[in-house]
Design a protein that fits this description.
It is a single chain. The chain has about 375 residues and is α/β, with parallel strands linked by helices. It has helices at about 40-45, 100-115, 125-140, 150-160, 170-180, 195-200, 205-210, 230-240, 260-270, 295-305, 315-325, 335-350, and strands spanning about 5, 10-15, 30-35, 75-80, 85-90, 120, 140-145, 165-170, 185-190, 220-225, 250-255, 310, 355-360. The strands form three sheets. The protein has a six-stranded mixed beta sheet, with helices on both faces. β10, α8 (about 230-240) and β11 form a beta-alpha-beta unit. It is globular. The structure holds pyridoxal-5'-phosphate and zinc ion. The site of pyridoxal-5'-phosphate has 20 residues, from α3, α8 and α12.
């Protein structure tokens, strides 16, 4: 059975209802999807190298609604970080330049299935670009809200895809407040609220395991703001474990920028919920989320995996960026934060030569100015 389920009050809804949060007025909780995925490994092996190869694990009913650029199955390659070989997925190679295409492909397919003609989304840039691209492909109108200070490359991309671009003065939080008003009128294709987005990002875990010969790595280090990649990855590994395809769930390490690190702080203080903070400006604009909607779920996932959060400074992000670009990987500063996090992680933990660590280059460098 496939249905939407409120994470707060437990109310269930049909997937055919155009919802992005619980309808009950006194609740308004986050929705999750109840769905039994299947993994026919033999069939999967023979399919195109894209994320829709895991078709039976993605809750879109009718193939006719799928909106796809044959995205995914990004290369998983060895990169030397502080003298250790780390396997890094090249998520900057997606059609819009970030891993957000994973979520956008599934979410906009569901929007298509619901027959919705216009959506709204808010973003620091990459999620907005991805939603705009998939909406363009699907013939769906969209309004994208971004902070005024968003990188020029991302703004150009969103406009050129034909989206209505709304530049909001102030912080990322001000942008989130502005979109909420628009979301009263149009469907909110939010990457943080909408559970279908995570049904796309979970394919990150499927691909990693398949690329390792249906085996899980020991540790996965990811940059985290709203947690769309981290939570999706956590869900994906859990589904594979439930299906008895992998034996263990990797340890998840979430990397935040010291200048905006609400999850890191809540974790250190052993809290269950994540208090909003006053974030400062950071080079890692893609993870500058002062008040993560799914903060509680992110904390739980990282704790349950036996992992932790690491915070990295602006200097460390800049250094990691220069180091990766110096090897020919053109990534955005947000992505470099994960590399800075890995360096810190390797310094603090006992040297374990066997430990298989996976990470991601989450976004392409061409959209941002870099730190100069
Ligand atoms: C969105 C994004 C992230 C992290 O995503 P969250 O969902 O906010 O945790 C990391 N890197 C890049 C380049 C991004 O665009
Ligand atoms: Zn509810």
């Amino acid at each position: 059975m496939t249905e939407l389920c409120c994470s707060k009050c437990g109310t269930e809804y049909s997937m055919e209802e155009p919802l992005w949060r619980c309808l009950r007025e006194e609740c308004g909780g986050l929705l999750d999807i109840r769905f039994e995925p299947a993994f026919p490994l033999g069939k999967i092996a023979g399919r195109k190298p894209c994320l829709w190869r895991y078709r039976e694990a993605i809750p879109i009913k009718d193939d006719a609604h799928i909106i796809s650029f044959d995205e995914g199955f990004t290369p998983l390659i060895n990169v030397s970080v502080a003298g250790k070989q780390i396997l890094i997925k090249q998520e900057q190679l997606f059609s819009t330049g970030s891993y957000k295409d994973r979520g956008a492909s599934v979410l906009i397919s569901q929007v298509k299935a619901l027959g919705i003609k216009r959506v709204v989304e808010d973003s620091s840039g990459n999620a907005g670009s991805a939603v705009a691209a998939y909406c363009a492909n699907a013939g769906i109108e969209c309004d994208i809200f971004v902070p005024e200070a968003t990188s020029q490359g991302k703004l150009a991309q969103i406009s050129l895809y034909g989206a209505h671009l709304h530049k909001i003065p102030g912080s990322r939080g001000d942008t989130a407040a502005a979109v909420m008003i628009a979301a009263e009128k149009y469907y909110y294709a939010s990457h943080s609220w909408n559970p279908f987005f995570f049904q796309g990002t979970k394919t990150f875990a499927f691909e990693v395991c398949e690329q390792l010969g249906w085996r899980a790595p020991d540790t996965v280090v990811l940059p985290v703001g709203s947690g769309t990649l981290l939570l999706g990855t956590w869900m994906g590994f859990n589904e594979l474990k439930t299906a008895q395809i992998i034996e263990k769930i990797p340890t998840l390490i979430g990397v935040q920028a010291t200048n905006c690190a609400p999850l890191y702080r809540a974790f250190k203080e052993n809290l269950q919920e994540v208090p909003a903070i006053l974030g400062e400006k950071t080079l890692a604009e893609g993870i500058a989320i002062a008040s993560p909607i799914r903060g509680k779920q992110i904390l739980e996932a990282v704790r349950n995996s036996g992992g932790e959060f690491i915070a990295v400074t602006e200097t460390e992000i800049k250094e990691a960026l220069l180091e990766m670009c110096g090897k020919g990987y053109y990534i955005e500063p947000t992505s470099a934060s994960a590399i800075a996090g890995i360096k810190k992680y390797l310094r603090q933990c006992a040297d374990n030569k066997e430990e298989l660590i996976v990470s991601a280059f989450t976004g392409h460098g061409l959209k941002t100015q870099g730190p100069f």
